[in-house]
Design goal:
The chain has about 140 residues and is an alpha+beta fold. It is built from 3 helices and 5 strands. The longest helix has 22 residues. The protein is elongated, with a radius of gyration of 26 Å.
Length: about 140
């Protein structure tokens, strides 16, 4: 397989490339109906990525990832009714989505806004007026 490309997004402007050598893949197959191992619908792929030894992560990305996975290991498994290759692709896609979500910086804090005086009354009045106009609209067809 090729290197894993994490799609760009907030916090990852140019994306992130995880070298194939940094990923540990394990495959297992359950025996088929006749006892032999079949390539389809019985394969499980486990993909492991060690955040601590990742050379492509910046320090801030690594600290964000370690907050999410304190032991430093990200493990993703794919075992749908697919061939081994399709499960490998699915596991890589899941890992990429998980890394993108975890490495994005937190959104800037929003300033708390004070509710304006009388806002509840204004909302209730508007709701009542909407109800009246709907009732009027229904009567026009009579």
């Amino acid at each position: 397989m090729k290197d894993l490309l994490v799609p760009s997004g907030p916090g990852l402007p140019s994306g992130l490339v995880v070298p194939d050598a940094d990923l540990v893949e394990r495959f297992s197959r359950s025996p088929g109906p006749g006892g032999q191992s079949v390539n389809t619908s019985d394969s499980r792929v486990e993909l492991e990525y060690d955040v601590r030894s990742a050379s492509t992560l910046t320090d801030s990305q690594r600290s964000r990832a370690l907050r999410r996975w304190p032991d430093g290991k990200v493990v993703i498994a794919a075992s749908e009714h697919r061939s081994q290759h399709r499960n490998r692709v699915a596991a890589r896609e899941r890992l990429a989505a998980l890394l993108r979500e975890a490495l994005a910086p937190p959104p800037p804090p929003r300033r708390a806004t004070r509710p304006t005086r009388g806002s509840k009354e204004r909302r209730l009045r508007a709701k009542k007026e909407r109800g009246q106009t709907k009732a009027l609209r229904g009567r026009v067809g009579d």
